[in-house]
């Protein structure tokens, strides 16, 4: 329904704000803030009445919004702009009075340092001639360094932005080495590894075009390679093979003909190395170790990556060798960057509005979302506003994704709503604007790197959300630029090690003097008859372990529940998270459509069956859980301010006992409780930290229910520390779980992945910063609720329906910690009720 402005007759904009008000505004400048009511007609009538009484003005409400920190004062915005000269589009966004402008700056790249001329590099004549043909007469300095170091046989990390010339920096020296050793090249000389098939296929034509001109043979081998082409590759191996680690893992342990090709490689190039973090990276560490083991040559390693906080240490841990780092920069135009906090609307509403403003000016726009569902919902709502936009995300058919890329590249499509799939180097042509939800700054810079590559003016918007870390950045925008992503792997994850040692025995029998560092695991496998001693060698018991290895995914570990719709498998979900999402009567999201779980076979069988529900069904579900932690081993302890914190091996017993129905679109994650007839139980080993929080003495003294106030304070503290650590540890809060044990003061924060993924260790190493930030999140939240709100104490992952939370107790606890109050760790007792 259209509500017209009583002053100029234009369409009014009516929005629900996050402090339960209704904000009404018009393009002519009048606006008002009214009490929330579900009946919009009543709100509009009250607005007309106030207008008639002269209470609706151009200035009054804006002054109130400024005073409450809902919008930024124009003087402050002008001070941010300074001597910069934003264009009309950016200016309209900065002064729109619809969002809080946290930061405005112009991002400029210094001109890249130039290196030697092509003809002075001593390259093979065919390479030099081809480079001149394609217009490259001089290298960037970082390319020159990379070419020299790789040619000399050094293990190298090339760290440079997207589209800065990284591919040439590793491709040219590899081709040079092949030309130089042409008489000795037998089989595959180099393997180029990409994290996804889509990226392999995108980069392959570029590599092929260059290599073919020099007489070098290149082929791609992955899950989509046809049988005829596979046969050709096996019978006549290329000099360079393009693939991924999933393929290498599978063929090594199956000892296929393809795995024998891998035994000849001399150079392994791993592009987009920053992707190999967490469980995936821990598995890749072992796959690289396995390649070294079966190769007849000593492998030279070349890593190419976007900006990492500590690329050298990370890559040396991943590859298991010493490496030399080379830094590069790319040439591009200046970019107007704005960080916005959506005080008066949702994050999605802000992102759609920005997309509309950009596309109306014919600026080609990429909109990055942090989940599949958000990318779908944004596109659906944007299309309703006549925006020419399509979705690009994992889980969609490859040919559809390719068509979206081509339409955008050929200017038939104005905008793409995407997930991090397009963070990687897939070529989508010219981009003017990047809009992103909250992510670590180095990944944002990589996304922004998509814009203004042709030297034109670029636009970049960071749309903060309505969550604790976004509120923190609203008030402390400079800290955002310090929070570089922490990339981590955990080679000592016992489950990764256990499976990968089995895979090693399948690759090639283990001799008795080998793999001393895995002696304990090998002994355990022999005792369990997974491995057998035969002729003084250790070989796999294939009858027993083949199903184990077939079920194992290098991108995640643990068993999965298979998901069926109409008796057809449509997906799977790894345990233990599967129990929270696929219990009976859960509402499950699949490709933007909601289904109900009609049957969950767990624990007897690992499946869940879905059924369709009507599109207008008003709810989704959130599991209710209980968890009990047991400390198995303490690896390390230290003091953070005055509190003792331990990094340990934990045994987590988990129970899903019910769920809540939450209304779609509701911001507060609380709902109506429903108990399951048969609770689902699961226990697993992981790693995490534990600390003893100080008592909130002042709040306890004021309280009628002292026990509730204390326990709820610890529970709220656990939530805020996890959310507050999000960007400090590289956006890993989604990888973490938490438990606070009643009034004991003990708080556990653990890796959600079985065996651990390194996220909690990243938090352990930076714990002081997380504790300080957590205090500011609670202190600066304007909500008056005792329990808090989604911007401070609530968690979207809470298994307790966001109940038993006390904002002011949590603030006192965090203030006591930051002032240095001392605590010591004690063992939990059975009487402590866990809150998660």
TrEMBL record:
<dbReference type="Pfam" id="PF00270">
    <property type="entry name" value="DEAD"/>
</dbReference>
<dbReference type="GO" id="GO:0005524">
    <property type="term" value="F:ATP binding"/>
</dbReference>
<dbReference type="InterPro" id="IPR018973">
    <property type="entry name" value="MZB"/>
</dbReference>
<feature type="domain" description="Helicase ATP-binding">
    <location>
        <begin position="147"/>
        <end position="326"/>
    </location>
</feature>
<dbReference type="Pfam" id="PF00271">
    <property type="entry name" value="Helicase_C"/>
</dbReference>
<keyword id="KW-0067">ATP-binding</keyword>
<dbReference type="InterPro" id="IPR027417">
    <property type="entry name" value="P-loop_NTPase"/>
</dbReference>
<dbReference type="GO" id="GO:0003676">
    <property type="term" value="F:nucleic acid binding"/>
</dbReference>
<protein>
    <submittedName>
        <fullName>DEAD/DEAH box helicase domain protein</fullName>
    </submittedName>
</protein>
<feature type="domain" description="Helicase C-terminal">
    <location>
        <begin position="353"/>
        <end position="495"/>
    </location>
</feature>
<dbReference type="GO" id="GO:0043138">
    <property type="term" value="F:3'-5' DNA helicase activity"/>
</dbReference>
<dbReference type="GO" id="GO:0006289">
    <property type="term" value="P:nucleotide-excision repair"/>
</dbReference>
<dbReference type="InterPro" id="IPR001650">
    <property type="entry name" value="Helicase_C-like"/>
</dbReference>
<dbReference type="InterPro" id="IPR011545">
    <property type="entry name" value="DEAD/DEAH_box_helicase_dom"/>
</dbReference>
<dbReference type="InterPro" id="IPR014001">
    <property type="entry name" value="Helicase_ATP-bd"/>
</dbReference>
<dbReference type="GO" id="GO:0036297">
    <property type="term" value="P:interstrand cross-link repair"/>
</dbReference>
<dbReference type="Pfam" id="PF09369">
    <property type="entry name" value="MZB"/>
</dbReference>
<keyword id="KW-0547">Nucleotide-binding</keyword>
<keyword id="KW-0378">Hydrolase</keyword>
<keyword id="KW-0347">Helicase</keyword>
């Amino acid at each position: 329904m259209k509500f017209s402005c009583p002053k100029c007759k234009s369409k009014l904009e009516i929005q629900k704000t996050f402090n339960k008000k209704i904000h009404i505004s018009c393009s002519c400048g009048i606006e008002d803030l009214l009490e929330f009511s579900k009946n919009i007609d009543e709100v509009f009538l009250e607005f007309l009445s106030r207008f008639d009484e002269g209470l609706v003005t151009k200035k009054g409400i804006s002054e109130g919004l400024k005073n409450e920190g809902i919008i930024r004062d124009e003087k402050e915005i002008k001070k941010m702009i300074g001597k910069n000269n934003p264009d009309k589009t950016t200016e309209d966004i900065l002064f729109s009075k619809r969002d809080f402008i946290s930061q405005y700056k112009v991002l400029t790249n210094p001109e890249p340092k130039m290196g030697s001329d092509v003809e002075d590099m001593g390259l093979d004549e065919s390479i030099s001639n081809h480079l001149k043909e394609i217009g490259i007469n001089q290298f960037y300095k970082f390319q020159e360094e990379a070419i020299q170091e790789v040619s000399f046989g050094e293990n190298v990390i090339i760290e440079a932005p997207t589209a800065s010339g990284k591919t040439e920096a590793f491709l040219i020296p590899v081709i040079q080495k092949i030309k130089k050793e042409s008489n000795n090249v037998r089989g595959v000389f180099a393997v180029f590894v990409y994290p996804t098939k889509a990226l392999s296929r995108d980069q392959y034509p570029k590599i092929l075009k260059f290599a073919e001109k020099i007489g070098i043979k290149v082929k791609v081998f992955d899950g989509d390679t046809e049988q005829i082409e596979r046969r050709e590759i096996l019978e006549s191996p290329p000099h360079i093979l393009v693939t991924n680690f999933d393929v290498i893992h599978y063929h090594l342990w199956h000892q296929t003909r393809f795995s024998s090709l891998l035994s000849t490689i001399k150079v392994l190039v791993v592009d987009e190395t920053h992707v190999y973090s967490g469980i995936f990276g821990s598995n890749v560490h072992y796959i690289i170790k396995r390649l070294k083991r079966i190769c007849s040559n000593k492998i030279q390693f070349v890593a190419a990556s976007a900006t990492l906080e500590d690329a050298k240490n990370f890559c040396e841990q991943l590859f298991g060798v010493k490496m030399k780092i080379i830094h590069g920069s790319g040439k591009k135009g200046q970019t107007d960057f704005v960080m916005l906090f959506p005080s008066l609307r949702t994050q999605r509403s802000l992102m759609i509005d920005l997309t509309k403003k950009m596309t109306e000016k014919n600026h080609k726009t990429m909109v990055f979302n942090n989940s599949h569902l958000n990318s779908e919902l944004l596109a659906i709502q944007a299309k309703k506003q006549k925006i020419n936009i399509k979705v690009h995300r994992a889980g969609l058919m490859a040919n559809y994704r390719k068509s979206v890329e081509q339409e955008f590249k050929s200017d038939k499509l104005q905008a793409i709503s995407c997930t991090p799939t397009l963070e990687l180097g897939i070529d989508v042509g010219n981009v003017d604007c990047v809009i992103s939800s909250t992510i670590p700054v180095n990944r944002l810079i990589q996304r922004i790197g998509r814009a203004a590559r042709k030297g034109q003016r670029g636009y970049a918007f960071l749309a903060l959300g309505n969550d604790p870390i976004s509120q923190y950045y609203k008030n402390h925008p400079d800290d955002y630029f310090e929070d570089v992503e922490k990339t981590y792997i955990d080679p000592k994850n016992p489950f990764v090690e256990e499976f990968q040692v089995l895979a090693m025995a399948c690759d090639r029998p283990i001799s008795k003097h080998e793999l001393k560092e895995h002696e304990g695991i090998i002994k355990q496998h022999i005792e369990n008859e997974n491995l057998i001693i035969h002729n003084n060698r250790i070989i796999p018991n294939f009858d027993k372990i083949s199903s184990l290895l077939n079920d194992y995914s290098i991108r995640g570990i643990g068993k999965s529940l298979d998901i069926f719709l109409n008796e057809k498998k449509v997906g799977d979900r790894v345990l233990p998270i599967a129990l929270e999402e696929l219990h009976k009567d859960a509402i499950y999201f699949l490709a933007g459509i909601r289904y109900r779980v009609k049957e969950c076979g767990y624990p007897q069988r690992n499946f869940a069956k879905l059924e369709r529900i009507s599109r207008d069904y008003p709810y989704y579900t959130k599991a209710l859980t209980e968890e009990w932690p047991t400390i198995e081993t303490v690896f390390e302890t230290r003091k953070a301010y005055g509190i003792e914190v331990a990094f340990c091996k934990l045994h987590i017993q988990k129970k899903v006992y019910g769920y809540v129905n939450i209304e779609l679109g509701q911001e507060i994650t609380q709902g109506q409780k429903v108990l399951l007839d048969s609770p689902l139980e699961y226990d697993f080993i992981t790693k995490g930290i534990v600390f003893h929080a100080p008592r909130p003495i002042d709040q306890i003294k004021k309280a009628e229910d002292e026990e509730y106030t204390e326990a709820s304070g610890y529970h709220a503290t656990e939530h805020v520390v996890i959310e507050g650590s999000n960007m400090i540890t590289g956006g890993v809060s989604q990888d973490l779980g938490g438990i606070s044990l009643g009034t004991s003061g003990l708080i556990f924060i653990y890796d959600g992945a079985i065996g651990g993924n390194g996220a909690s260790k990243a938090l352990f190493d930076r714990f002081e910063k997380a504790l300080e930030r957590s205090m500011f999140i609670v202190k600066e939240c304007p909500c008056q609720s005792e329990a808090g709100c989604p911007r401070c104490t609530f968690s979207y992952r809470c298994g307790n329906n966001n109940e038993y939370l006390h904002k002011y107790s949590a603030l006192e606890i965090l203030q006591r910690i930051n002032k240095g109050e001392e605590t010591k760790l004690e063992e939990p007792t059975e009487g402590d009720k866990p809150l998660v």
